Amino acid sequence: MQPSRNTADTFDAVVLGGGVIGLSVAWRLRQRGLSVAVVDPDPGHGTSWVAAGMLAPVSEVAYGEERLLGLNIDSARLWPSFAAELEELSGEPSGLWECGTLVVASDPGDRAELEALMAFQNELGLGSQWLSSRESRNAEPLLAPGIRGAILVDQDHQVDNRVLIAALLAVVRRSGVVLYGCAASEIEISEERALGVLLAPGPGCPKKALPAGTIVVSAGAWSSQLKGVPERFLPHIRPVKGQLLRLLGNPEQAPVLGRTVRAQVNGRHIYIVPRLTGEVVVGATSEEMGFDTSIRAGAVRTLLDDASRVVPAVDDLKLVESLAGLRPGTPDNRPLIGPSGLDGLVLATGHGRNGILLAPLTAQLVAGWICDSSEPPKDTSPSRFFATRHEARLEPR
Ligand code: GLY
């Protein structure tokens, strides 16, 4: 696409959704010279705000998901330069902490499963290493004495999601992206082409149309709810609920952990993500509950019980927040990045558990498609569902 000009409220690209994906896409498009707007009623405060921010392609790898792994590794490699550029251009910290990850086994059954997982990781050439219980506790002294060993994954890191959001908001504002703190009521379509976005009227939001050369959908779990788009062009996205907790240690003291700890506790998965500020994020459930974001007492209890089985010092931290976010799930757990099938409508959504990890790669692929017509890789292409998406929607639920 040739950049045009930004006349009043007309843009080369309008990005729907101001989470980490939408802001990263907007930033990259603006860097290519396009006039860009982001539409989001509360930019940065959706699922990205709830996330733990793990950059964990290796420790989160799942059997049968090798193609997702390839995308995750490609994006993990982009993270250091993405963060450095973001810091330079925003003047803010990016939140990246290259701290590594330990994946801890709580009991003998967990150990057997993690040893099998490590064998799978090493078959894929991922270079994981087993640590005995004693070695694990040398690496992380506050691990419980009864743990059964751990996989050391030096290349999996983390980013403080809220620090990252502040930096992305700063860089998009500095670069001249226009932020509309409004909801989108409808996509305007004519003759099978998306033409623009209609803002929903509300406080501070006049009823207004934003004509756009391209509309990018980065609306996370809400990406299949776009009004005005014919059903056959809507992506298959479902919300996958994750409840998590934010705890706080004494910021004057060293963090309780020096790296991210994931663990398997009686077959359940948990993560304990320390921040340099003394904050600790404990998560997360994975539930098919539609758009429910209520916090359940049982989930809080299980998260805390499992976390304190692995790191007993968690009991002494202050519980400051309990949250639930909605991951945008796709049928094959891979994202949807590229043309939607409707002219003028591009997807950058469906990132499931990996939104923050995949942000640099997604932004690069979307900019490549819109600015240079470079096809995104087949593994991300929305076209893999074109044949089935209409039929699937008609299936009885
Ligand atoms: N990637 C962590 C989560 O989705 O809970």
Structure description:
- There is one protein chain.
- With 397 residues, the chain is α+β, with helices and mostly antiparallel strands.
- The chain folds into 2 domains: 11-49 and 163-237 and 331-388, FAD/NAD(P)-binding domain, CATH 3.50.50; 101-154 and 239-328, D-Amino Acid Oxidase, Chain A, domain 2 (2-Layer Sandwich), CATH 3.30.9.10.
- It has 9 helices and 19 strands.
- It has helices at residues 20-31, 47-50, 66-90, 108-123, 133-139, 161-175, 297-310, 355-372, 389-394, and strands at residues 11-16, 36-39, 54-55, 96-97, 101-105, 129-131, 150-153, 157-159, 178-180, 184-190, 193-199, 208-217, 238-248, 260-265, 268-274, 279-283, 318-329, 336-339, 345-349.
- The strands form 3 sheets. Strands 1, 2, 9, 10, 11, 12, 18 and 19 form an 8-stranded mixed sheet that branches.
- Helix 1 packs parallel to helix 6 (161-175) and helix 3 packs across helix 6.
- The radius of gyration is 21 Å and the shape is globular.
- It starts with 10 loop residues before the first strand and ends with a helix.
- The model is unreliable at 392-397 (pLDDT under 50).
- The structure holds glycine.
- Glycine binds at residues 52, 54, 242, 283-284, 327, 353.
- Glycine binds next to loops.
